Amino acid sequence: MSIDKADRTAASIHTPNLQAFREVVESRRSVRRFTDTPIPDAVLADCLRLAMLAPNSSNLQPWEFYVIDSVDSRKRAIKNCMNQNAAKTSARLIAVVARTDNWHDHAKQVLREYPVNPVPKKVKDYYNKVVTLDFLRGPVNIVSAAKWGTIQVIRRAKGPIKSPYYTFDDVKNWATNNAALAAQNLMLALRAHGFDSCPMGGFDEPAMKKLLGLGDDHHIVMMIGAGARADNGIYHTQFRFDPDQLVHYV
Questions:
Q1: How far apart are CA 187 and CA 55, in angstroms?
Q2: Structurally, how many domains does the chain consist of?
Q3: Which InterPro entries does the record match to this protein (predicted)?
Q4: Among 144, 167, 190, which residue terminates a domain?
Q5: Contacts of 110 by beta carbon, 8 Å cutoff, 6+ apart
Q6: If DSSP codes are grouped into helix, strand and coil, which group holds residue 201?
Q7: Same-domain status, 45 and 95
Q8: Domain enclosing residue 89, as ranges
Q9: Could you give the residue ranges of the DSSP H alpha helices within 116-167?
């Protein structure tokens, strides 16, 4: 069998079920009220595992998940979520957190756990040099200023080049974007397991960070209430704008 034919055969074996995926996506709703049905620990663990299979920049995985289970912490967390029904009635309440301070440690960990041994030189150079230069800002952003000037010269001389991270906000945007991808995986995984969720942006972040013992380099992207959908858990019929309004072909 040729390599191309083998690749096609392998692909056909592992082709996901499109209809099952459609059913998961189309049945996912932001559910505001849940029943008393618990989410088993094994189910939640699998959902979190699937969440962490989300695509992320350079596999640096700048996310964390805080499952708020203790009675006291949950009571305080619900209050910090403005007592929303999605928090009050949830079987599990989860904080999705982006980290802006562990990219260097995670780059080193990637090299330690890389699945090919010995680690190829180009991979070592990427994580030791390219990633470091991408994130490094220096005191009062002094390194960022030098990077900005260098990038402008390269862009004019050689053409398009990815902009590195110049400011703290750049790094925060990077981390929160990655964490949001994992959050979507988590919500779809819950739906595939027969449960539902509600992503909440309405919460007191400083109070929630204090509750969870988080620092300045932790950023709560969203709170997710999860559980089994109650009959009155969906507040209105789902609708979206016409794709012609929002999809552009250029």
A1: 15
A2: 2
A3: Nitroreductase, Nitroreductase-like
A4: 167
A5: 58, 59, 60, 127
A6: coil
A7: yes
A8: 31-101+169-232
A9: 121-125, 131-135, 142-158
